Structure formats: structure tokens, C-alpha cells
């Protein structure tokens, strides 16, 4: 009986982690016309090389998700689809944001792929590491995190702010992988469990570690942006950090509660000071301390209302159950036999 159960487990494991899995590389794009052509060239080389090595199936694809770009990004995706059989595309009806656009690609790709790699379009992530991701997947890992080896290419402020971001997330109780963004591989079953997380406030760096399963890390060196401008200025970075904290932790509300207790203690000390001043006949003085106390307590109250309001706003968004994104157009038809990439390369069936 035990032997039969073990044989069933081994067979299920071997079917889960195929020797030549169908790999999809999902790349969210927002106004990436300057770098798109170069990105397609790099990823095509990576995919072709892995297929030739028989690391992945010939049915693998590159999926570009246009997140409501205002430039020619979608036109370039459509043109690349006609010329490059590896390329597929999704066009969202409006700009939904990086995390939701990435989620749209992941949820669509999981229906066709055995494993999916997600990465940005700016080529800062080392595309050569995709091969290492696939090797780890074939070893039985469901989630493979791409982790930066160093931040030497960043400015001093960028390094400092990134370090503080990860430390702050950790202290707030958000389980994230240090120096990891959204460059990762996920197996089909990991993606199926990711689909069960229905929350509107999407923060994938915090959600993916909650899934569990076997995980590992692949280190790589991050490059300079190949072309174009960064889509994450300081304002967006701060907003992203706040979104992550408030989506996974109630500690900000607890901090406000602690500030309330401290304010109460300060008020009691002020009351003792006022009482002593009256007893000693010094009631005329103290106007400055009174005004400071009023402004201080008022600011604490506004801060508390702001934090509570942020959580109420998130609850409001969650209970409406609005769709996270709307797919406007899909370029995913299977290529014809004449245009199949392996035939173009001269390979045999």
C-alpha cells in the first residue's frame, strides 16, 4: 500500500515538473516603444537557445502585456507578432497599473504554460538568468526568485531607499524577499493558487511568499536601463511601499494607537503642570505651551483619521468586487506550421 502511494507521488511529481516544460515569459509594458525592439531580440535569443538545448518546449512563448500605453507600444507588439512566431500579446482596455497588468499576463499564461517567468521590459533584469530559473524548476521548485547580487549600478539615494524599504516591510510584518522585485518563475500549480487570492489591492511581492511550496533564489547582476525613462520615480516608489504595507499589515493602526497613548501621557503631564501653575499663582503664563498642545493633539487626530481612512478605503474597494483589469485585445493564436519558429530555424519535428 505504501509502495503504491509512493509510486503515485513520484508519477505526479514527474508530470508536474516536465523535462521540456512549456514556458511563457510575461512582460508588462507601459510606454516602452524605445526599448521594445531590443527586448524582443534579447528574449527571442534566450527562448531559441533554450528550445535548442531542449530545456523548454517548442510551444513556449513570449507574452507582452500592454498596460494602456499612450505611445506605439501595442503597434510594435502587433508588428512583432506578425514577424516573430514566439511573440504573443495582451492589450488592456486602460492603464491598470504594473502589478495588475503583470497579474493579467500571469493569469492568462497559466492556462497554456507549465511555468511562467515574469520580468520588466527595460532589460535591467539579466535575461540570461531565465535559463537558471528553468533548471531550478526542473529540479522541483515551484517558485524561483531572481535576487539582485548588488546595487552598484544604483545611485546612493536609490540604494539607501531600497534598503530602508525592505527593512520597513519586514518590521511591518510583510514577508518579502530581500532585493527581489518581480523577476521570478512560478509553476502552473503556484499560479493556480495565486488565482485564489482575489484581493483588489495587488502587491505580488507580498502575495507570492504566502503561497508556499518549494522556493529557491537565483542571484544576478542588474543592468542599467537599456532605453527610455524609469516608470518608478520617487513618488511612485513611496506610493508602492505604502500600498504594500497597508495591504498586508495593520501595524500602522497599532502605531497610531501607541501614539494615542503617548499623547494621553503627555496630556496628563500637561494637566499636572497646569494644576501646579494654578497652585503657585502662575496662571497667566503658559499661552505658548497651550497652543503647542492644541496643534500637537490636532495633528495626531488628523493622522489617526488618515490611517484609519486608508484602511476603510481598501475595504471599500475590496467589497465592490470590481474586475482588476479588462482585456481589450489578444494576440495569441497558435502559429501556422509554415511560420513555426522551429521550422524557420531548420529543426526537425
Question: What do you see in this structure?
Answer:
With 349 residues, the chain is α/β, with parallel strands linked by helices. The protein has twelve helices and eight strands. It has an eight-stranded mixed sheet with strand order 7-5-6-4-1-2-3-8, sandwiched between helices. The longest helix is centred in the last third of the chain and has 34 residues, at 287-320. The radius of gyration is 26 Å and the shape is elongated.
Number of strands: 8
Indicate the overall shape.
elongated
Any idea of the CATH class of the largest domain?
A: Alpha Beta
Domains (count): 2
Distance between the termini: 41 Å
CATH 2nd-level architecture of the largest domain: Alpha-Beta Complex
The number of helices is 12
Radius of gyration: 26 Å
> What is the CATH superfamily classification of the largest domain?
Spore Coat Polysaccharide Biosynthesis Protein SpsA, Chain A
Which strands sit side by side, in order, in the main sheet? 7-5-6-4-1-2-3-8
Overall pLDDT: 75
> Which fold name is given in CATH as the topology of the largest domain?
Spore Coat Polysaccharide Biosynthesis Protein SpsA, Chain A
Low-pLDDT windows of residues: 1-15, 335-340, 342-349
Oligomer: single chain
User: How are helices and strands ordered from N to C?
Assistant: HEHEHEHEHEHEHHEHHHEH
The chain-level structural class is alpha/beta
Amino acid at each position: 500500500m505504501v509502495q503504491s502511494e509512493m509510486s503515485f507521488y513520484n508519477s505526479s511529481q514527474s508530470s508536474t515538473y516536465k523535462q521540456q516544460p512549456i514556458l511563457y515569459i510575461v512582460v508588462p509594458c507601459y510606454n516602452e516603444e524605445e526599448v521594445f525592439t531590443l527586448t524582443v531580440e534579447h528574449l527571442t535569443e534566450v527562448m531559441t537557445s533554450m528550445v535548442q538545448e531542449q530545456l523548454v518546449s517548442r510551444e513556449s512563448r513570449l507574452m507582452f502585456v500592454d498596460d494602456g500605453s499612450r505611445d506605439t507600444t501595442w503597434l510594435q507588439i502587433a508588428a512583432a507578432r506578425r514577424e516573430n512566431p514566439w511573440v504573443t500579446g495582451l492589450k488592456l482596455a486602460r492603464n491598470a497599473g504594473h502589478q495588475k497588468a503583470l497579474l493579467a499576463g500571469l493569469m492568462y499564461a497559466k492556462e497554456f504554460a507549465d511555468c511562467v517567468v515574469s520580468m520588466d521590459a527595460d532589460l535591467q533584469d539579466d535575461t540570461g538568468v531565465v535559463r537558471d530559473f528553468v533548471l531550478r524548476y526542473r529540479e522541483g521548485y515551484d517558485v524561483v526568485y531572481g535576487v539582485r547580487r548588488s546595487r552598484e549600478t544604483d545611485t546612493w539615494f536609490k540604494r539607501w531607499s531600497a534598503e530602508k524599504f525592505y527593512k520597513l516591510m519586514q518590521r511591518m510584518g510583510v514577508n518579502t524577499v530581500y532585493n527581489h522585485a518581480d523577476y521570478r518563475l512560478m509553476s502552473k500549480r503556484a499560479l493556480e493558487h495565486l488565482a485564489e487570492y482575489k484581493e483588489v489591492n495587488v502587491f505580488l511581492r507580498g502575495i507570492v511568499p504566502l503561497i508556499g511550496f518549494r522556493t529557491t533564489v537565483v542571484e544576478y547582476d542588474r543592468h542599467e536601463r537599456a532605453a527610455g525613462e524609469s516608470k518608478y520615480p520617487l513618488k511612485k516608489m513611496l506610493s508602492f511601499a505604502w500600498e504594500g504595507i497597508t495591504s498586508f499589515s495593520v501595524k500602522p493602526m497599532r502605531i497610531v494607537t501607541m501614539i494615542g497613548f503617548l499623547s494621553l501621557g503627555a496630556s496628563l503631564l500637561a494637566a499636572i503642570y497646569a494644576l501646579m501653575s494654578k497652585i503657585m499663582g502662575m496662571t497667566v503664563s503658559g499661552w505658548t505651551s497651550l497652543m503647542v498642545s492644541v496643534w500637537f493633539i490636532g495633528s495626531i487626530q488628523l493622522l489617526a483619521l488618515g490611517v484609519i481612512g486608508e484602511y476603510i478605503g481598501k475595504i471599500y474597494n475590496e467589497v465592490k468586487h470590481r474586475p482588476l483589469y479588462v482585456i481589450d485585445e489578444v494576440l495569441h493564436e497558435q502559429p501556422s506550421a509554415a511560420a513555426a519558429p522551429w521550422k524557420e530555424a531548420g529543426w526537425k519535428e
